[in-house]
Amino acid sequence: MDIKKTLSEAAAGGQEAADRLTETLYAELGKLASKRMRGERSSHTLQTMDLLNEAMGRLMGDEKLSVKDRQHFIALSSRAMQRVLVDHARKRNADRRGGHRERLSLESIQPEAPVPKDNLQVLAEALEQLERIDVRKGQVARLRLLGGMTVPEVAEVMEVSTNTVDRDWKQAKEWLLKSLS
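Predicted structure:
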């Protein structure tokens, strides 16, 4: 299946294309959503399938969606899921504006580990700020921390060398440590 063509057809409202896409990537995206939800609190009101459906709805509703390949689509899906969770956390915490925020330590976050549920919004805001300063470093940090991707996977998605990803990741961690302390 040509994922780029199928995505274009699905984004244009083609239900058959959306169904083919869902069937093809369902298991992989389901695992990604499940991994994301394991890092959330047990009383979370979103279920794994709700997260997957909301993220896919947002992706398919984006008329500017441009996908290079399967790996790129998975990375975009991961980011869409992260945005759904951040939006959900913001909505949940809206009544606590001005409240105490717990400090976030990057040492407590490993790329393979889920982001601590109380710190997701703080981390997302820091990543957004980093992306405004340096887009590539922000994307590397987002894919490593929230996407759970390895250096080679990030390099492939971003079409840069692993050395570039290593360098950007090191600098992004340093910036985030300063920003979050």
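Summary: Residues 3-70 form one domain.
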